[in-house]
Amino acid sequence: MMDAAQQSKTDVTACILCSRNCGLSVEIKDNQFVKIKGDPEHAFSQGYICQKAARLQHYQQHADRLTTPLKRQPDGSFQEVSWDVAIQEIADRLVQIRDDFGGTAFASVGGGGQGNHLGAAYGRQLLLAMKSYYAYNSLAQEKTGDFWLNGRLFGSQACHTTEDVEHADYVLFIGTNPFQAHGIPNARDTLKHIKKDPNRTMVVFDPRVTETAKQADIHVQLKPGTDAFLMSAMIAIIIKEKLYDVAFIEQHTHGFEDVKTAFSRVPIEDYITKADVTVDLIYQVVRDFAKAKRGCVRIDLGIQHTLNTTLNGYLEKLLYLLTGNFGKQGTNNLHTMFIPILSDTDERKPKYRRSVYHKMFPISGFFPPIILPDEILKAGEKRIRAVFVDSCNPLLTYPDTPAYEEAFKALDLLVVVDVAMTETARLADYILPAHTQFEKWEFTGFNLEFPKNGFHLRHPVLTAQTNTLPEAEIYTRLLEAMNAIPKNFPILEKIASVDSKKTVYLPYLSALGLTFARNKKYIPFAASIIYRTLGKQLENSAGSVAFLLPLSIQYAVLHSKAVRRAGYKGNPLTQGVKLFEQILKQRSGMVLSQHEYDEVWKLVGYKDKKIRLAIPEMLTELANLKNHQVNVEEFPFILLSGERRSYNANQIYRDPAWRKVDAEGALRIHPEDAEALSVAVGDQIKCISQHGEIQVTVDFDEGMRKGVVSLPHDYGMRFQGGEPIGPQLNMLISGEHCDPLSKTPYHKYVPIRLEKC
Predict the structure, then answer these.
(1) Which of 161, 279, 533, 610 has its CB surrounded by the most CB atoms within 10 Å?
(2) Same domain, yes or no: 262 and 371
(3) Model pLDDT, residue 634
(4) Nearest-angstrom CA–CA distance, 172 and 303
(5) 706 found inside a domain
(6) Does the pLDDT of residue 3 top 80, yes or no?
(7) Domain presence at residue 615
(8) Residue range 238-260: mean pLDDT, rounded
């Protein structure tokens, strides 16, 4: 009889390479993917797929895969150890560090990496067991400026906006290239539909003629770093020409007069000239956008990783709020969130503690990675001494690689949980090998849609690598070894063994509530407790997702009407149980809720459900914008760092064999700039910033603005311990090159000079 791992089968799962997590249909043979295509039954993507997903076997099977726990030896080599030894030794050292130095001595880094969201629910518990609040996360080098603004505008940093590009009549794409970056449903199909419809308009703001710009009705090829000038001018035009929606503003907002006064002072033509674009064109775009029946704005890292990061986000939001393009089809909206990945940590409240050295505050519960090396090296006795890295590779993905290397070498303890021997793992004291995302239960973390929101629980489709564990088991064992929770909950286990959906899990939930009431210290570890008790009773070894039951009930309580419209009848408790059962059952994802557009106002955090348009800190930045200089003579080129291309994805693709083209991650430069430097396609050239230098390969791109160059992310890895392949971007970026408020790095504005090798 053939072993299960050797049998051929077809199954469904989802892509893990971007936030869209499109559904996949996979053919599996010998425990490997042999064919990958879109899943037509998927509740949202409906068969859509881009070419990157077809290469996922290169994530699943490669030479850097970890197969057993490893412990660093005094000579720097690694020795295989058992799980029991690794867990106990790590637990003992963590407890000692916590007891000797307090919670500020520990930080978690990563957790919930792209597509790898379930483990974050368990990893967060370790932070709480260490009595720490230092959660450093990739979101905090990308989106926390946006989260901070949402807190001010909508009343909570847990509020989050989405955009209904699919139904918009007039779309502004600012600093984003959805053809490559996606970020919107079925991106390439959606762009195609807009392009073909004569009644719809697409405007792209980008220094480069991107793939999206080529399809646009209007391409505004602005100068890098001038986004704030241009958007300020656009809002000033709205104010000057009274293109704002008076009825919307009066009914739904506060603070308009302050905004009106501030933008009345903006020198419109001067600011448009700074952006180096045509004044008349910008007036046309603003007028047409304001008059559109359904206008929508989509942004991304292009303006979130450049000068004036947080101000850019504020201006972008004012564009659609002042014109009333909010809370209806084809506009921008708030949305529900099934997995609570964001919290509200308003720095104006003293309970939210700041970092020791930088005095930085958390935003949505996260600290920015750019400050971490200093918090390890420069914070004195209260420095961070132990770091847990999960599903993340800071040595390549966070700014200032040399600083990170120095900092991590100075730690008392560095533990890495990953599927591969990364650059960061090579510095670790302990390496704990996890299941890949296709060997375990996993789910879509970014269910960020409105009015219809969904969820996709991905089932294991491949047999797990021997001697690896899923994160749920790793962290639960650690908590047990640290004596944060007992190894057994006999009463809960007994009740769970006889409970079922027929009783809507009431006996179990009641017993769980009683357990927490009697032992409040267990509340932070609810995920692991549910995993060890109710989780044992779930079919197909689905224990790690058992905590979705209380989340399902919570979601139904908060959004009962919307859940009912999605087909789940009964009271919130029974609705929640039905949601949970469907989540487990529907292998191609499912719809959680169906809202009506006027329900968007219930999602506003302020008690009066009105938006606060005037943010004092941002109006101050706006006033200071006139003093801002963007030209750096010593470094005449501006590098757009981290460009998304057809054959780059993220750090989980370690094997360079997956790239059919652009194997070296070439520097894209305008041919005339290259001619002035006397370099040709394929030549080597030095990129030199104020902070560091790298050597890269030259490629021509006539769509690039003169004086601007670009490099892709996802390169520079040392596969099988070899030399770095492609550009190590973060060698060029210092820990000081960032937004003053959010500490978001300026990846899209790196002044450099180019020298021929």
Answers:
(1) 533
(2) no
(3) 84
(4) 13
(5) yes
(6) no
(7) no
(8) 98
Q: What is the CATH number of the domain that holds 699?
A: 2.40.40.20
Report the pLDDT value the prediction gives residue 6, as an integer from 0 to 100. Answer: 56
Size of the chain, expressed as the number of residues it contains: 757
pLDDT at residue 649, rounded to an integer = 85
140 and 178 both lie in a single domain: no
Q: Are residues 169 and 150 in the same domain?
A: no
631/633 Cα distance (integer angstroms)? 6
What is the DSSP secondary structure assignment for residue 362, as one 8-state letter?
Answer: P
pLDDT number for residue 19 = 87
Into how many domains does the chain fold?
4
Q: Which residues pair with 61 in a beta bridge?
A: none
- Do both 58 and 127 map to the same domain? yes
Which ranges of 519-641 would DSSP assign to H, the alpha helix?
526-532, 548-558, 560-565, 572-585, 616-624
* Predicted pLDDT of residue 2: 40
Distance, CA of 6 to CA of 29 (rounded, Å): 6
| pTM of the entire predicted model | 0.96
Strand partners, 340: none
Q: Which amino acid is at 290?
A: A
610: in domain? no
Q: List pLDDT tens digits, range 46-56.
A: 999 988 898 99
Q: What is the mean pLDDT of residues 539-562?
A: 96
pLDDT for res 630: 63
- Picking from 580, 600, 620, the residue at the C-terminal end of a domain is 600
Q: Please answer whether residues 479 and 485 qualify as being in contact, where contact means their C-beta atoms are separated by less than 8 angstroms.
A: yes
Rounded distance between C-alpha atoms, residue 437 and residue 446, angstroms? 16
Q: What Cα–Cα distance (Å) separates residue 290 from each residue in 317, 322, 631, 698?
A: 13, 9, 32, 42
User: How far, in Å, CA of 335 to CA of 331, rounded?
Assistant: 12
Do 535 and 446 fall within a single domain?
Answer: no
Q: How far apart are CA 76 and CA 79, in angstroms?
A: 10
Measured CA to CA, the distance from residue 192 to residue 185 in angstroms comes to 12
User: 555 and 484, same structural domain?
Assistant: yes
Q: Which domain holds residue 694?
A: 631-756
Are residues 417 and 458 both part of a single domain?
Answer: no
Q: What is the pLDDT of residues 685-742, one digit of tens each?
A: 999 999 999 999 999 999 999 999 999 999 999 999 999 999 999 999 999 999 999 9
Phi, psi torsion values for 12, nearest 5 degrees: -125, 150
Res 632: pLDDT:
60
pLDDT at 4: 47
CA-to-CA separations, 648 to 55, 191, 215, 458, 712, in angstroms, rounded = 11, 21, 22, 24, 7
Instruction: Reply yes or no on whether the pLDDT at 500 is more than 60.
Output: yes
pLDDT digits (tens, 9 = 90+) for 6-63: 568 999 999 999 888 999 999 999 999 999 999 999 999 999 998 889 899 999 999 9
When pLDDT is averaged across residues 391-402 and rounded to a whole number, the result is 95
> Domain for residue 737, yes or no?
yes
Return the percent helix, strand and coil in the chain, to nearest 5.
40, 20, 40
Domain's final residue, options 398, 429, 453: 453
| Average pLDDT of every residue of the chain | 95
- Residue 704: beta bridge partners? 208
Question: Are residues 485 and 405 part of one domain?
Answer: no
